[in-house]
Automatic annotation (TrEMBL):
This is DUF5931 domain-containing protein. Residues 318-412 form the Histidine kinase/HSP90-like ATPase domain. The chain crosses the membrane at residues 12-32, 38-59, 71-90, 102-121, 142-164. SUPFAM superfamilies: ATPase domain of HSP90 chaperone/DNA topoisomerase II/histidine kinase. The keyword Amino-acid biosynthesis does not apply. Residues 186-206 form the Signal transduction histidine kinase subgroup 3 dimerisation and phosphoacceptor domain. Residues 240-273 are annotated as: Disordered. InterPro entries: DUF5931 (IPR045975), HATPase_C_sf (IPR036890), HATPase_dom (IPR003594), Sensor_HK_TwoCompSys (IPR050482), Sig_transdc_His_kin_sub3_dim/P (IPR011712). The keyword Transmembrane applies. Keywords: Kinase, Membrane, Transferase, Transmembrane, Transmembrane helix, Two-component regulatory system. Residues 5-174 form the DUF5931 domain. It comes from Streptomyces humicola. Residues 240-260 have a biased composition (Gly residues).
Length: 428
């Protein structure tokens, strides 16, 4: 799934653009109010007009870090310094010494804040120090008023710069986490597909080869070796020694004792996808989930579904049908060929629920964890993984001697708001 890029920097650039405009209005209004007190108002007017044009023309630059380049930042800072150093030239000495506001006034803080957002606290410290020195030069001495302003600007700008560095690091970490999450989900999807197709076919070839004997037995032994190696790879143990063992002792065991276990656990013919389940891949409109469940009905499988269609997005219907097929396949493998299964489809206002129950011997405690470590991902990926990606949950309840029930739940909100393809929590 594509995640939208999260940017904490963009709102700050927009806020800085607004600050520059408001600071310009303040500086211009303050100058107009005191213009008669200036010694050379014509020079001050020229600077204020130039400052206004510069601010308005450079507004597009204040929209992103890419547009606000380092040469532009230096030029912007020079405009502020020019106004500060021009103030004692156009204003009277008495007003300058008395602490009158410089021509750019608060606008001079804008370039410093731009340095902070663009380059972090070090750039902010350098820019604020330059502006502070220029204010001391303009006043001709160090006074309590300008020291207060300089220190305030220094702390505010460096603080914003530090926050920006932390925010960028957090944004990068979040982006990396989203990439890892996406890659993990893709691996899980591939693991489901492999489990539902390749591994089951290899197990079937191994069993049939052992039954036929002769050259077919050798083919079955090789299929068993590849199954064990592929299970180790899917389980993520190939790089930690699992794959090595699969290629040596694991492959040998596959042909002997391991092959027997594989044949007993996985070699039965898997539940085949129905024509309806295949056709749904080409659908673009809502699909009736009940129509995908009914082909599973047979002598040992009972399907109960509402009379009205249970309409779902094609992807959600297909994944639910595949999860039910995986549950029925587990019934065939582990509960035995004589076990019966019941499928119940419930269409509720808040969620769609599908239950698959059997009358087999149940699952012993710890069996699912052992199966996942062995690379048998029928429950963890083919069932729970699919429901998690739909935004739903899969709960498995098993009592020894009383059978097993798998309950699949998909909230309507996940199907409508996110198309049934977003991840949510999984009940384990």
């Amino acid at each position: 799934m594509a995640h939208p890029r999260i940017s904490v920097e963009q709102p700050l650039w927009r806020a800085l653009g607004g600050f520059r405009v408001l600071a310009l209005v303040y500086a211009f209004a303050k100058y107009v109010y005191h213009s008669e007190q200036y010694a050379h108002p014509a020079g001050a007017w020229a600077y204020m007009i130039a400052l206004t044009l510069w601010t308005l023309l450079t507004l597009p630059r204040m929209t992103s870090a890419a547009r606000c380049t380092r040469p532009f930042l230096i030029a912007d800072l020079c405009v502020a310094l020019a106004g500060i150093l021009l103030t004692p030239v156009v204003d009277t000495h008495a007003r300058v010494v008395g602490g009158a506001t410089t021509l750019p006034s608060f606008w001079a803080a804008g370039p410093v804040l731009a340095f902070a957002i663009k380059g972090g606290w070090r750039w902010a410290a350098a820019a604020s120090a330059i502006v502070g020195v220029s204010n001391i030069v303009e006043r001709g001495r160090i006074a309590a008023g300008n020291v207060h302003s300089i220190v305030l600007l220094f702390f505010v700008s460096t603080g914003i710069g530090y926050v920006m560095e932390v925010a960028r690091s957090s944004e990068w970490a979040l982006s990396r986490a989203l990439q890892i999450e996406a890659a993990t989900r893709e691996r899980e999807r591939l693991a489901r597909d492999i489990h539902d197709s390749v591994l089951q076919v290899l197990a079937m070839v191994q069993r049939r080869g052992n039954e036929v004997g002769g050259e077919a037995a050798e083919l079955g032994r090789m299929a068993g070796e590849q199954e064990v190696a592929l299970r180790a790879l899917v389980a993520g143990e190939a790089g930690r020694g699992g794959g090595k063992n699969a290629g040596r002792g694991g492959g040998k065991n596959a042909g002997r004792g391991g092959g027997k276990n594989a044949a007993r656990d996985d070699a039965r013919v898997p539940v085949q996808r129905t024509p309806l389940a295949q056709d749904v891949e080409r659908e673009t409109g809502p699909v009736d989930l009940s129509s995908l469940m009914r082909p599973y009905a047979g002598a040992k499988v009972t399907v109960a579904a509402p009379a009205e269609p249970v309409l779902l997005p094609p992807h959600a219907a297909r994944e639910l049908a595949a999860a039910v097929a995986a549950a029925l396949d587990n019934v065939t493998r582990h509960a035995g060929p004589d076990a019966c299964a019941w499928i119940l489809v419930e269409d509720e206002p808040q969620e769609v629920r599908v239950s698959v129950r059997d009358d087999g011997p149940g699952i012993r405690k710890g069996r699912l964890a052992d199966a996942e470590r062995e690379g048998r991902l029928g429950v963890s990926q083919s069932i729970r993984g699919r429901l998690r990606d739909l935004g739903g949950t899969a709960e498995l309840t098993s009592v020894p001697g009383q059978g097993t029930e798998v309950e699949l739940r998909v909230p309507r909100s996940a199907l409508k708001g996110r198309g049934g393809a977003e991840a949510c929590r999984t009940t384990r």
